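In response to the reviewer comment on reproducibility (Comment 2.3), we provide here a single inverse folding case reported in full, input and output, so that an independent group could reproduce the run without further information from us. The C-alpha cells appear first.
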C-alpha cells in the first residue's frame, strides 16, 4: 500500500467517530493511522493509502457523520516528515531556530504542517493533535532562521485562511531547556 496520501475526519461525537472509522476502512484499501477521542469530547480518524482510495474512504465516511462533522481533509503526496512527526515516539535533533504553529482545528493543522515542510528546508519535530490541548493542535519545526520563518509563514497562511489560527512564533536561538520541552 502506498502511504503517501492521508485523509482526516474530525468529529464532535465519539460515537460518530467509531462509525466513521469503520465506514472509512470498509470503503477503500486504506490503513488506519489514528482513531481516537481527542480533547473536548471530539473524535479523530486518520487514514493513509493511495490518493484515490483515501479520497473514496473519506467521502464515504463523511456520509455517516450524522451532523457531527467538524472538518475533513485529504492530502495527496503528504510530505514524509509529517508522517514521522505525527505522534513522534523518538526525539528528533533540534537544529537552530524553533518554529511553533498552533491551531484551533486538527485537520487544518495537518494541512499547515504539510505546507510548512514543503515550503522550506525544515525538520518537523512533532505534530501534536488535540491531546491534552483542549482540542487544539500544534506542530514544531527546526532549521536555520530564514527557513523556519518561511515554513511558519506558509503554515500561518493556511491556518489564517481557515480562520483557526491561535498563534505562530519563531524563536531564533532557543535556550536548550526550551528544546528539551519540545522533544
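Designed residues, in position order:
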Amino acid at each position: 500500500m502506498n502511504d503517501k496520501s492521508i485523509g482526516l475526519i474530525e468529529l464532535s461525537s465519539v460515537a460518530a467517530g467509531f462509525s466513521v472509522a469503520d465506514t472509512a476502512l470498509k470503503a477503500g484499501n486504506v490503513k488506519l493511522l489514528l482513531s481516537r477521542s481527542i480533547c473536548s469530547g471530539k473524535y479523530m480518524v486518520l487514514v493513509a493509502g493511495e490518493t484515490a482510495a483515501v479520497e473514496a474512504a473519506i467521502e464515504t465516511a463523511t456520509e455517516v457523520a450524522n451532523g457531527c462533522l467538524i472538518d475533513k481533509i485529504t492530502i495527496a503526496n503528504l510530505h514524509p516528515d509529517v508522517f514521522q512527526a505525527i505522534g513522534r515516539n523518538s526525539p528528533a535533533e533540534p537544529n537552530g531556530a524553533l518554529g511553533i504553529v498552533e491551531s484551533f482545528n486538527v485537520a487544518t493543522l495537518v494541512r499547515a504542517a504539510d505546507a510548512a515542510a514543503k515550503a522550506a528546508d525544515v525538520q518537523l519535530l512533532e505534530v501534536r493533535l488535540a491531546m491534552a490541548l483542549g482540542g487544539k493542535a500544534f506542530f514544531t519545526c527546526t532549521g536555520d532562521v530564514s527557513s523556519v520563518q518561511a515554513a511558519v509563514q506558509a503554515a500561518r497562511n493556511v491556518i489564517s485562511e481557515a480562520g483557526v489560527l491561535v498563534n505562530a512564533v519563531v524563536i531564533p536561538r532557543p535556550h536548550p531547556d526550551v528544546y528539551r520541552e519540545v522533544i
